[in-house]
Amino acid sequence: MSEESGTHIAWQTGDYAYEWYGNGMLKEVRLPYGKTVRFEYDALGRRTAKLFNGHVFRYLWDGNVMVQEWLYEEKDRPQHSIDEFGRIRMLGDEPVENLVTWVYEEGSYVPVAKLQNGERYTIISDYMGRPVEAYNSYGNVVWQADYDIYGDLRNIKGLRDFIPFRQLGQYEDDETRLYYNRFRYYDPRIGNYISQDPIRLAGNNPTLYGYVRDCNVWVDIFGLYLHRPYIRKETRIAIEKSGTIIDGRFYDTVDGMDNAIAIEGGKRRNYSLADGEYHLGHKEGHEYRYYKEYAEKKGMTQKEFNDLMNNPAIYQIEDPHTNMSHVREAKANPLTQTNGEMKNNIVSCKS
Asked: Is 160 in a helix, a strand, or coil?
């Protein structure tokens, strides 16, 4: 199916062919050798089933995280019926085989454990929440990998699909090598999504098929918009309280009140204290890249990195246009200029 014209295009051996539901969700993929993978979703865009090669792969969700998956033969799938209230019901019990349970870091999308067949596996992720290692209960490495610039796996140890999670919010399908990313599918071979952003430019990315501008800084958990993974609500509220509000609107006063900039737009969050779609800018000398270097140097876990980056003292309310221009950034890394200490003693990098 051509996304632009809505017309069917003949499939040929060696091609991938994609078909979509009316709401823009991927319905099926015909693979180069002729077999087809089909997908089913609930009303919230959460994938509930994948059907391939005579098997049903089922998924159970808790809010926005997938917590269990299992598979069984398609011939054993119960029939469905619609009752008088329009509810879809299964006519019989659904088989549950090879059940896998996923455990996540509290309040996040970062997987920390896999439970299967009575065995527990610990998952270690990098500072961006991407799994890089898995250990069994004896402390042995059973899976290991790192990532290229587009998020594809490199240097894999163990079965590739033993840990299917990739960049935060993404789950790899072995059949297509696409990453299911809630409302879209991402292709790590080209570094783009295979369909346009369903919320178009509201996703804060002018490239409608693009992922994020910098995968070392940003993630896109739902396939909708650019999102930094670590700023918590209470942190943002504290930053807002330290900002300048005039007549119910945030002002960028980093360059002084004489050069104050009224920040345009409505509230940044529904709980924001004033109007103005501001950016959270890093104070000079506390730019993200320096903290990233520090986290990598110290081998921080995702939680440790999140805690580090949730210090309101390193942020300021900025006008988006000024923030995106980077004109206020320090030109030298303060870690190398001050013997391993950030300015104002906000964070120390001494060993």
From this structure: helix
- Listed in sequence order, the residues at least 6 apart from 113 whose beta carbon sits closer than 8 Å to its beta carbon are 102, 103, 120, 121, 122, 123
Residue located via tokens 């700023």? 231
**pLDDT tens column, 99-124:** 999 999 887 899 999 999 999 999 99
At residue 211, the 3 state secondary structure works out as: coil
Comparing CA positions, the residue from 266, 259, 309, 319 lying closest to residue 287 is 309
Query: Is it the case that residue 207 has pLDDT exceeding 90?
Result: no
Summary mean pLDDT of the chain: 86
* Tokens 């999102």 found at: 227
Neighbour count for residue 74 (Cβ, 10 Å)? 12
Going by C-beta distance under 8 Å and a sequence separation of 6 or more, which residues neighbour residue 273? 237, 240, 241, 243, 245
Q: State residue 350's pLDDT score.
A: 36
Tell me the DSSP string of 327-345. Answer: TTS-SS-HHHHTTSB-GGG
147, 130 in Cβ contact below 8 A? Answer: yes
Strand, helix or coil for residue 139: coil
**pLDDT number for residue 328:** 59
Q: How confident is the model at residue 272 (pLDDT cuts 50, 70, 90)?
A: very high
pLDDT at 190: 94
pLDDT > 50? residue 349: no
Of 129 and 215, the structure prediction assigns the larger pLDDT to 129
Q: Does residue 92 sit in helix, strand or coil?
A: coil
How is 225-278 classified by DSSP, letter by letter? S-B-S---HHHHHHHHHHSEEETTEEEE-TT-GGG-EEPPSSBSSTT-SSBB--
Quote the CA–CA distance of 102 and 221 in Å, as a whole number.
17
Which DSSP symbol is given to 155? E
Residues paired with residue 63 on neighbouring β-strands, in sequence order: none
How far is it, in rounded angstroms, from Cα 98 to Cα 114?
12
